[in-house]
Write a structure and sequence with these properties.
CATH superfamily of the largest domain in chain A: Response regulator
Low-confidence stretches of chain B: 424-430, 472-487
Radius of gyration of chain A: 18 Å
CATH class of the largest domain in chain A: Alpha Beta
Shape of chain B: rod-shaped
Order of helices and strands of chain B: HEEEEEEEHHHHEHEEHEEHHEEH
CATH topology of the largest domain in chain B: Heat Shock Protein 90
Order of helices and strands of chain A: EHEHEHEHEHEEEEHEHHEE
Oligomer: heterodimer
CATH superfamily of the largest domain in chain B: Histidine kinase-like ATPase, C-terminal domain
Largest interface: A-B, 25 and 22 residues
Strand order of the largest sheet of chain B: 4-3-7-6-5
CATH architecture of the largest domain in chain B: 2-Layer Sandwich
Number of helices of chain A: 8
Helix content of chain B: 40-55%
Number of strands of chain B: 14
Mean pLDDT of chain A: 88
Strand order of the largest sheet of chain A: 2-1-3-4-5
Largest sheet of chain A: 5 strands, parallel
Structural class of chain A: alpha/beta
Number of strands of chain A: 12
CATH class of the largest domain in chain B: Alpha Beta
Helix content of chain A: 40-55%
Strand content of chain A: 15-25%
């Protein structure tokens, strides 16, 4: 998953970013003002945008309106210092999916981020199941047929992304876009390394693989 | 009786005046009745005395001798206390005297006289008539006629009884009238005070949610209540303004404090999310300390602003010394010098002579420093910031001119509002909280001055501060007293 944080308080943005990376295993990009935020949000496929309202350049509300006007469906979590009902209603009506008032709890921010991402992908439970494969997105544990499977951070990211869209063909480029942040050098062959690692760990002895490769198209996670 | 009640005070006044009136009425009535009865009695006694005089006759052929014919005396009116009288003639002497003649009625000869006396426990009124002519002409008179002196006394006990009766009658009527008047007064006072109670009830409904004092028209038109209503309305207006100011301040302060608190909180929570190395903990603590420092700074600025606005509200009643404006400028420029050096900005000061002003030098330096720092921050490197100090008849005028980026027309009307940051990217990066100019304005206004900004975007900004030039005596005392400046 890849998240964009638009926040001009550098330290706050960094803290949220680090927390999302460490605890949720998300790729995170930072924007410090309105124009930069809009540019990044338009240029990259984010799974979530965390948006501060008081921004230099133009403020978060304008950014939100422009995003929604251009047809962007990415869930937006707004950070605001104002907690009066009126401004919150206006925000939600402008296209925000959720809000947190400052000062907020990082744990809550993480939980809400996860909810927004899985809802956008059509899931309401934190538990993703494909056949006898169970992925708990809340504590990032994976089990197959009751057996716990230990994955590396990157393997988990790939599996979680695929598990959010079971049965769909996910292109390698899409995986790259969603698993790495802006500053990362993107080499498509690393994906193949993670996929083969996943296949090996998820193998329960049968011939059939859960992750199948469609040549020149991408990967499918399917029972 | 409660002493601190308008109703009771008014009723006491009415009662007192009514009592005085009643007493006066009774006394006057009694005195008048007594006087009327006495004069009637007097007239009656005179006619009785003349009738007595008619009983004096000349003895025929006696060369003017007289006698008193007491066989013709009328019976006394009051047999218990008969009238007393004595008749004497000028030459023949005493002719007749009533029985039980009291010593008190024996008088030395003299003119006509009225007096009161008491005889045998009974009050009498007496009169003496002299030079009374004898009615009887006498036969063949060839002698000089005699004149009579008559002393006549009548009991006055019935008169006193009448006066007493009249007195008690008047007193009774007055008392009844007084009770009726008191009742009317009580009703009138109650009715008259009713608007006051209405007003109190209305005033009781005023609250921080509802500042409106709605006065019914029938109360508002009462002349005595009008000043009270006016001053209450004015007081409420002042309270409302001050309350709104505080509420706004609290709201914006809370809003502004949330971001630094969020930063600090996120730093700490993020650090605690997983075990860290000592180096990471150390970094986190240092970051937290930094965040805290910023928070503290913001709090200090907010307190300064709150205090300045409070002074401005109360028109700054403090014991202030007289300071020299150029000296406070010199101090502010000295403080701003490191910033100017870092930005390679030159500060030019134009102004000479002493400009005495009653103020706290710290306040003035805060204003000057804010203006200077803004000017330096928005100036391009290598430019100059000019400070001009001048005076006209009524004001001291300080101007700070920079050749920086200027302020956009959109921002210009708002730059003195608290927490207002024009272009966020510019002010946040320069570390401003959007409070400096708000504090400057509050302080300048607290001293009865004004502050304004003129700006051409791209060419620079001119900030103008006007402070009221004090009366001449401040100038005089400045010349005599040593200057109190912060330097």
């Amino acid at each position: 998953m890849r998240v964009l944080i638009v926040e001009d308080e550098r330290r706050l943005a960094e803290n949220i970013a680090r927390s999302l990376r460490e605890v949720a295993g998300y790729a995170v990009d930072l924007a410090a003002d309105g124009p930069q935020g809009l540019h990044l949000a338009s240029a990259n496929p984010y799974d979530l945008i965390i948006l501060d309202l008081m921004l230099p350049g133009f403020d978060g509300r304008q950014l939100l309106v422009q995003l929604r006007d251009s047809g962007q469906q990415t869930p937006v979590l707004v950070l605001t210092a104002r907690d009066d009902k009126e401004s919150i209603v206006t925000l939600l009506n402008a296209g925000a999916d959720d809000y947190l008032t400052k000062p907020f709890d990082l744990g809550e921010l993480l939980a809400r981020s996860k909810v927004l991402i899985r809802r956008a992908k059509g899931h309401s439970s934190p538990l993703l199941t494909v056949g006898d494969l169970e992925i708990n997105t809340a504590d990032r544990t994976v089990r197959r047929g009751g057996r716990a499977i230990t994955l590396t951070a990157m393997e988990y990211r790939v599996l979680e992304y695929l598990a959010h869209r079971p049965g769909a063909v996910v292109a390698k480029s899409e995986l790259l876009e969603h698993l790495y942040d802006y500053n990362w050098q993107k080499f498509s062959n690393v994906i193949e390394v993670y996929i083969s690692g996943l296949r090996r760990k998820l193998n329960d002895g049968s011939e059939r693989q859960l992750i199948r490769t469609l040549r020149n198209q991408g990967y499918v996670l399917q029972e | 009786m409660r002493r601190n009640s308008i109703q009771n005070r008014l009723l006491s006044a009415v009662l007192l005046s009514q009592t005085l009136l009643t007493v006066g009425l009774v006394l006057t009535g009694v005195a008048y009745t007594y006087w009327r009865l006495l004069s009637t009695l007097d007239n009656g006694m005179q006619s009785h005395a003349l009738r007595v005089a008619a009983l004096v006759r000349y003895i025929d052929n006696s060369n003017g001798k007289v006698y008193f014919d007491n066989s013709l005396l009328p019976p006394p009116l009051d047999p218990e206390h008969p009238d007393l009288f004595a008749v004497s003639a000028s030459r023949s002497g005493l002719l007749y005297r009533s029985q039980d003649w009291p010593q008190e009625l024996d008088l030395k000869p003299g003119p006509d006289l009225h007096w009161n006396l008491e005889h045998a426990g009974v009050p009498y009124h007496a009169l003496r008539l002299t030079q009374v002519k004898i009615l009887d002409r006498g036969q063949g008179r060839s002698f000089r006629p005699q004149t009579l002196t008559i002393v006549y006394a009548s009991p006055t006990s019935h008169l006193i009884q009448q006066v007493k009766a009249a007195g008690s009658y008047i007193a009774l009527i007055s008392l009844a009238l007084m009770i009726i008047a008191l009742g009317i007064a009580f009703w009138g006072v109650r009715r008259g005070l009713q608007p006051l109670q209405t007003l109190a009830a209305q005033a009781g409904m005023v609250s921080t949610q509802n500042w409106e004092l709605s006065v019914p028209p029938e109360v508002e038109k009462i002349e005595e209540l009008r000043p009270l209503i006016e001053s209450m309305t004015q007081m409420l207006e002042r309270l409302r303004r001050s309350f709104d100011l505080q509420r706004q301040f609290l709201a914006s302060a809370a809003h502004e404090l949330k971001t630094p608190v969020a930063v600090l909180k996120s730093t700490l929570q993020q650090t605690l999310q997983r075990p860290r190395t000592n180096q990471e903990y150390e970094d986190a603590l240092e970051n937290s300390l930094e965040d805290l420092g910023r928070l503290e700074q913001l709090l200090q600025w907010m307190l300064r602003l709150a205090r300045a606005e409070q002074w401005a509200q109360g028109a700054l009643r403090r014991d202030l010394d007289i300071v020299d404006l150029p000296a406070t400028w010199a101090e502010a420029i000295e403080r701003a010098q490191p910033l100017a050096d870092a930005n390679r900005t030159t500060i030019l000061f134009l102004g000479n002579g002493q400009l005495p002003f009653r103020a706290d030098p710290e306040d003035l330096q805060l204003v000057w420093s804010n203006l200077l720092e803004n000017a330096i921050r928005y100036s391009p490197q290598g430019s100059t910031v000019e400070v001009k100090l001048d005076r006209n008849r009524e004001s001291f005028i300080a101007e700070v001119l920079d050749h920086g980026v200027g302020i956009s027309a959109n921002d210009l009307p708002h730059i003195f509002e608290r927490f207002y940051r024009g272009d966020g990217s510019r002010t946040r990066s320069t570390g401003g909280f959007g409070l400096g100019l708000a504090i400057a304005r509050a302080l300048v206004e607290a001293y009865g001055g004004s502050i304004q900004a003129e700006s051409q975007p791209g060419q620079g900004t001119r900030m103008i501060v006007r402070l009221p030039a004090g009366p001449k005596k401040i100038s005089a005392s400045l010349e005599n007293a040593p200057l109190n400046t912060a330097s």
